[in-house]
């Protein structure tokens, strides 16, 4: 009895003596019931979607830099990536959801340009982003594929590489798209892609992505559907198989069901920690329905995308009400708005990078300031429980001049 009691005391004393207080950035985010925890306290996931961290489509790089003109694909500069981490920190965010840290297939600059072929050079931008997120104390949620056929690739690549001549423009409603989930050759090819990604060693950290707790969650994919838009027809067996695969490679990762919308039949999949939906425009009624379903299974709920700006239907009051609703529901682990861009560093610090979908937020753009203040209030409330005034000045974030090349390649 005496011995048992003294062991924790002894360990605590030893660790104190050696100053071995764990760096919180090395600890994994965990789930108990519907709530996420970090270092023993509830942790909430708030931030932006920054889809371009691994590969971008919005900047034409200087001549001589890698560029794939048919898709305008290029790697983001280290300066742009680092600036975004500083912006998320200044906004009070705790994490970023980023498609291209996981979705990178089908063009010459992708991680997997063609079936089974790995392009090592494509890891560099991803490595840097994961490393910088860690430096800034941020976490990452990373989708593993995409429902569509955009520049960064998605499910159609795995279909085309394995005998199904399908593309989104022609075949979005073709029942054959379900082969992505049901054909064992296609499923195995996707699982191999996931294995290659998760076992890559990041030279900035000497850890695999599977080991690095900076990536707290992998998501099956972005907005996954069947042949009908938003039909939620993603087979239970496939979600379970991908979940087992991810947890076998990376036992400490949380696993997100990336089906577009909450499919009731997925609630009982043990491997799924987090379910989510996207909101264009925001809808408190839909949010409540989604939360009720997910709470009934004692799992976590995440609002993975929502329209934040004036061009969408929402007024400032609508956005504030949406945030209050999320803040008061502990089973909603958090949210990520769509989507954040920074300046065109180091080439032109006077120019914001823009994306054509009309939903681009640019920190420092006076036209976005009022909404950014609302978002920041929400992030601070969620991450620190604190309140800041609606008119609190936004911390300034410098645009980075050229960073010295880091020792990788
Ligand atoms: C939900 O999970 C938590 C943590 O495992 C547990 O304590 C709680 O009893 C569960 N609630 C329900 C309703 O199952
Ligand atoms: C590439 O960018 C140029 C210049 O912004 C634009 O005119 C062109 O349409 C883009 N191409 C694609 C495929 O998006
Ligand atoms: C990674 O490992 C290499 C080889 O052992 C070592 O030279 C390097 O300093 C390590 N880097 C980090 C960030 O730990
Ligand atoms: C949910 O998933 C099941 C199982 O794959 C599927 O049959 C169903 O069509 C999906 N959609 C809805 C709305 O339940």
Summarize the structure.
This protein is an alpha/beta fold.
- Count of discrete structural domains: 1
- For this structure, the CATH topology is TIM Barrel
Major sheet summary line: 8 strands, parallel
Query: Which shape, going by the Cα principal axes?
Result: globular
CATH superfamily: Glycosidases
Text of the CATH class: Alpha Beta
- Care to count the β-strands? 17
- The Cα radius of gyration reads 21 Å
Spatial order of the strands in the main sheet?
4-13-12-11-10-9-6-5
Percent range of helical residues = 25-40%
Task: List the total number of helices.
Answer: 11
Per DSSP, what share of the residues sits in E-state strands of 2 or more residues? 15-25%
- Cα(first) to Cα(last) distance is 55 Å
Assembly level: single chain
Low-confidence stretches: 1-17
> Can you write the helix and strand succession as a string?
HEEEEHEHEHHHHEEEHEEHEHEEEEEH
CATH architecture: Alpha-Beta Barrel
Pfam family, one: GH5_mannosidase
Keywords: Glycosidase, Hydrolase, Secreted, Signal
EC number: 3.2.1.78
Main location: secreted
């Amino acid at each position: 009895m005496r011995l048992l009691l003294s062991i924790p005391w002894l360990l605590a004393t030893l660790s104190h003596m050696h100053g071995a207080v764990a760096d919180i950035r090395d600890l994994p985010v965990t789930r108990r019931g519907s709530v996420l925890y970090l270092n023993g306290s509830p942790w909430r996931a708030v931030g932006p979607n920054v889809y371009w961290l691994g590969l971008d489509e919005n900047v034409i790089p200087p001549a001589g830099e890698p560029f794939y003109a048919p898709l305008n694909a290029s790697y983001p500069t280290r300066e742009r990536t680092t600036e975004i981490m500083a912006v998320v920190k200044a906004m009070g965010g705790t994490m970023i959801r980023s498609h291209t840290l996981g979705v990178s297939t089908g063009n010459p600059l992708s991680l997997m340009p063609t079936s089974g072929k790995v392009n090592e050079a494509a890891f560099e931008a991803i490595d840097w982003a994961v490393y910088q997120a860690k430096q800034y104390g941020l976490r990452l949620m990373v989708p593993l594929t995409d429902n569509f056929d955009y520049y960064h690739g998605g499910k159609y690549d795995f279909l085309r590489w394995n005998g199904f001549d399908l593309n989104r423009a022609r075949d979005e409603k073709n029942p054959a798209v379900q082969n992505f989930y049901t054909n064992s050759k296609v499923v195995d090819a996707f699982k191999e892609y996931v294995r290659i990604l998760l076992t890559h060693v990041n030279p900035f950290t000497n850890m695999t992505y599977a080991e690095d707790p900076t990536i707290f969650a992998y998501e099956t994919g972005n907005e996954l559907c069947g042949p009908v838009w938003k039909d939620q027809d993603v087979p239970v067996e496939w979600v379970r198989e991908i979940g087992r695969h991810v947890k076998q490679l990376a036992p400490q990762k949380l696993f997100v069901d990336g089906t577009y919308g909450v499919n009731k039949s997925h609630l009982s999949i043990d491997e799924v920690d987090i379910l989510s939906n996207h909101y264009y425009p925001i809808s408190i009624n839909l949010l409540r329905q989604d939360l009720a379903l997910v709470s009934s299974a004692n799992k976590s709920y995440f609002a993975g995308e929502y329209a934040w700006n004036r061009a969408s239907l929402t007024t400032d009051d609508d956005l504030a009400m949406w945030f209050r609703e999320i803040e008061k529901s502990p089973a909603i682990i958090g949210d990520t708005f769509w989507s954040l861009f920074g300046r065109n560093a180091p080439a032109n610090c006077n120019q914001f990078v823009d994306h054509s979908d009309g939903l681009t937020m640019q920190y420092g753009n006076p036209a976005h300031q009022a909404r950014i203040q609302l978002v920041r209030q929400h992030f601070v409330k969620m991450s620190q429980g604190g309140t800041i005034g609606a008119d609190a000045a936004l911390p300034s974030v410098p645009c980075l001049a050229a960073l010295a090349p880091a020792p990788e390649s």
